[in-house]
Predict the structure.
Amino acid sequence: MQPVTDMVCRWDAPGGAGSVFLSASTIRDLRTKAIEAFVSLPKRGVETGGLLFGREQGGHLFIQGSEEVMCEHRYGPSFTLSDADRARLADRLAQARRDGSLPVIGFYRSYTGREVVLEAAELALLRDRFPQGPFVFLLLQPVSAQICTASFRLCQDGELLPEPPYTPVSFDPEQFHSATEAPVEIDTDTDTQTAPE
C-alpha cells in the first residue's frame, strides 16, 4: 500500500524558543492513551508516560513515533517509576541506541488530579540520559473522557529552556497550526511514521 500524507501539526514555543511538529495521528494516539488511563479507575484514574522518537531538523523537533514506558504504579496512580521501572527504561534506551532506531527526542506523561509540574526524577532523567542536544517534555492533562490539554517544555543539553508562562492548549489536531510544508509520511501497512529528509 502506498504511504499516505498525514496532517502535520505545529506548536510554537512562546518567546520563539523553538517549534515542535507532530502528526495528527500521533496527537490522537497519545490523547487516547492519556484519557484511557484517566478513566480506567474511579476519581483520578492513573497516569501514563513514554518515549517520543524523532529528529531535530533546522532548529525544530519532529516527533515521529512514541512508545509507552511501563510503570508498576507501586506508589499509587501517579506516574512515578520504581527501581525496576527505571532499570527497564535504561535497558530500552540502550537498545534504542544500539539498534539504529529513531533517536529519543522527548518524553510524554500525563497528570491526573494534580498540578502539571515536572518532577525531580524527570529532570534527573533529562540530565543523566539526554545531556546533549534538544529534547521536549510533552505534559498531558486529561480532565474528562473527552478533553485533554497539553503543555510542552523545550530543553537543550540537559536543561530546561526558560520560557514565559502560557495557557495549555487543547490536545486536539484541530487546535494546532497546520504545517503542510513539513509532511509526515505514514506507511499504512506498518503504521510507521517517517519525517521529511
